[in-house]
Design brief:
- The protein has 93 residues and is mostly helical.
- It has a domain at 29-91.
- Helices cover 75% and strands 0% of the residues.
- It is flat, with a radius of gyration of 15 Å.
- The termini are far apart.
- The model has no long low-confidence stretch (mean pLDDT 82).
């Protein structure tokens, strides 16, 4: 089906699942706060930084599971894009 819907060879550990859920919880809080505060750019910049950190965590986990090189490089590339997007939001302040 493609890169985004592949079955993982190994399942994530419970600690990684907790970290992922924590990152998602923080992202939802930042997104909701940014919308409530009138689309303040600082919250959206922080949202993209946390999203980039989540992509780095996923890429590192895929690297340790010995996934295909393309899989974790896509995660690191997505993290780079998220960091660049966050810096553009911080310039709007």
């Amino acid at each position: 089906m493609g890169l985004f819907f592949q079955k993982m060879k190994k399942k994530s550990s419970k600690s990684m699942m907790v970290v992922r859920l924590f990152v998602i919880f923080i992202m939802v809080i930042l997104l909701a706060t940014g919308i409530i505060k009138g689309f303040d750019s600082i919250f959206f910049g922080l949202f993209f930084i946390i999203s980039g950190i989540g992509s780095i965590i996923d890429g590192t986990e895929n690297y340790f599971h010995r996934e295909n090189k393309r899989v974790y490089l896509v995660n690191y590339g997505l993290a780079f894009v998220c960091f660049v997007a966050s810096f553009t939001f911080f310039e709007l302040i």
